[in-house]
Amino acid sequence: MAQRTALYEKHIAAGGKMVDFAGWDMPIHYGSQIEEHHTVRNHAGVFDVSHMTVIDFKGEATRAFLQRLLANDVGKLTIPGKALYSCMLNEQGGIIDDLITYYMNETWYRMVVNAATREKDLAWINQQAASFNIEITERADLAMLAVQGPAARGNVHQVLGGKIGAAHELEPFFAAQCEDLFIARTGYTGEDGYEIILPAGKAPELWDKLLEAGVKPIGLGARDTLRLEAGMNLYGQDMDETTTPLESGLAWTIAWQPAARQFIGRPALEQQHEAGVPRKLVGLVLLDRGVLRSHQKVIVHNGGEGETTSGSFSPTLNRSIAFARVPAQTSGECEVEIRNKKLKAKIVKPPFVRFGKSCID
Amino acid sequence: MSNIPEDLYYTKTHEWVKQDADGTVTVGITDHAQHLLGDMVFIELPDPGSEFNTGDDCAVVESVKAASDVYCPVSGEIIETNVALVETPEVVNQDPYGDGWLFRLKPNDEGEVEDLLDAETYRELAEEESH
User: Fold this and answer.
1) CA distances from B117 to A133, B11, B37, B112 (A)
2) Which of A99, A211, A294, B48 has the most CB within a 10 Å radius?
3) Is A179 left (phi over 0), alpha (psi -120 to 50) or beta?
């Protein structure tokens, strides 16, 4: 049987259509995925993301360990609470997972990894940590809510009142622990908002209060179209162990400096960088009518082929968009094969939408 | 439970068929089907004049979630399509048995229509699928 989050009953009560996601019974939508998408772009919505895996790292060797484990450098994190997005690579430079690390203090870092990769991530992390004196704890006792949208922070402040103290002033990409609430100004939608990690038993009460304040429940369906519009990769779809960050639009997440930092996968990435990266991940906007989906063939004009990795209808742009992995020199227009027809698409640089506004012509 | 009008015929693949007075039939997808697929974002319709056999895929309805083929319920010639859906595919969700119709067809054999499922049989099928 699939696992259930602390909010399962709340999803049923809200009319959630439940589906299996990485072994979890999760709501795909509560009626209309498109309406939920617009709610997050224009007002505020709450997602149950308790299926994601929270891992705490404790001990003085944590910084050194994470500087070895991650392609981005936690050495950049100098102010407590600061978050860092990074890939975790294998020795070949392939992406094991993408994740967020929060630097809380010198002896406590918190990491959030994907639900679908939980087992292999934990196995890899523990294997790599064997020679470091650190304590690694999976926090299955915690739930996680993402409250996102232009009105999200105001709604959270209203609901939590004085309890969140200094979190009122959190800068983007910072987190703070306020009593039993871990509040982070991060997200996966391209909108402002918070991700709140809290004891699982307290999640239903917070959920109810947010709904009472006018925040709407949002399913995983809208989460996918929101993140696609926001130009954010989905692990397992846009990247995996056979692709490097350089081929996945994530070169900006590789910290090459300091040159002496020997993170896992570095030699392989350096080799690929010097030899020339053969493929890149780009954004596509469909010019003809139709809907882009993953695994459609992309035909580029100067010869060569690529493939869409994620694709959907964009509710904000009212047209279809996608990510595609194409030969490195590709630019301009291309064609996508859909049901034996070749449809015209334009190559763009993601994001497609940021803070509710279109980023493309 | 989804709406299943008594006066229509149905297929196992969730199309509905209405017999019109002039001997043609109107075809759409059922309320149950639109509900399963979710918000429609794109409809691909056949060309008027084209001919299909029973069970041929003759149209595509795409929701934000997935693309789904529409199968021709009886063999015949397409005489009209609901071109308004090109601009407003969401009408299939809002009014699947009315303004959300997909196409009209002149059946090769009117008897074929009566071999389709009646409302009661289709209701049993839809309920079974919902569990």
Assistant:
1) 69, 6, 21, 11
2) A99
3) left
Assess A293–B contact: CB distance below 8 Å, yes or no: yes
Does A289 reach chain B within 8 Å, measured CB to CB? yes
B-contacting residues of A 236-265, CB under 8 Å?
A: none
Question: Using DSSP, how many helices (H) and how many strands (E) does chain A show?
Answer: 8, 21
Reading chain B (131 residues) residue by residue, the pLDDT tens digits are 689 999 999 999 999 999 999 999 999 999 999 999 999 999 999 999 999 999 999 999 999 989 999 999 999 999 999 999 999 999 999 999 999 999 999 999 988 999 999 999 999 999 988 76
- For residues A157 and A224, membership in a common domain is answered with yes
- Mutation to test the A interface, candidates B64, B65, B85, B91, most A Cβ within 10 Å: B64
Q: How many CB pairs under 8 A join A and B?
A: 36
A221 touches chain B (CB under 8 A): yes
Domain count, chain A: 2
Measure the CA–CA gap between B29 and B3, rounded to whole angstroms: 12
Nearest CA in chain A to B35: A31
Whether CATH 3.40.718.10 fits B9-109: no
Query: What is the complex's ipTM, to 2 decimals?
Result: 0.86
Residue type, A261: R
Q: What is the pLDDT of residues A233-282, one digit of tens each?
A: 999 999 999 999 999 999 999 999 999 999 999 999 999 999 999 999 99
Q: Where are the domains of chain B?
A: 9-109
Asked whether residue A191 falls in the same domain as residue A235, the answer is: yes
Q: Give the span between the Cα atoms of B77 and A18, in whole angstroms.
A: 40
Of the candidates B39, B44, B62, the beta carbon closest to that of A33 is on B39
